[in-house]
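Materials and Methods. Structural model of Flavin reductase family protein. The 164-residue sequence of Flavin reductase family protein from Glycomyces niveus was retrieved and submitted for structure prediction as follows.
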Amino acid sequence: MPPDHRRVMRQFVTGVCVAATYTDEPTGRRHDAVTVNSFTSLSLDPPLVALSLRHESRFLAAILASRHFAVSILSGQHEEIARTFAQDQDARARAVTSMGRPGRASGALLLDGPGWIECRLDRRISVGDHTMIVGEVLATGLGDNDGPLIFVEGEFRSLEVAKP
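The predicted structure was written out as tokens:
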């Protein structure tokens, strides 16, 4: 990696989301969720989105198994949620049981926030040390928008949005 690559990319503002998926086990469905800022819209027609996860991610393995995921966009009031789902899988597992509701189209958990998207896995692409997951959008929804939670210079920040 070029020496300044990480420093330069810290200047790029990204939104903060929680991606969720599940695995079906003999004892029932086990949900998992993780904070991501590598989320983007790829296409409007057909509606496709993408997120990138490390190849060795257990969360990635769960998406590949279920073939479904959901992404909840976080508001500036959700910094604690973002921190919670940025932890290891065991800590996330304790928190996920009290968060969100299963989406009707994907079965993955949705959190309250400015918006959410439910997806079916369309394809995966190996890119460097990550796998890009492309999702076909199955359903979307809007919630209250108190301004998004953003990530820049290694910190969470709140961005105020002017109301019409």
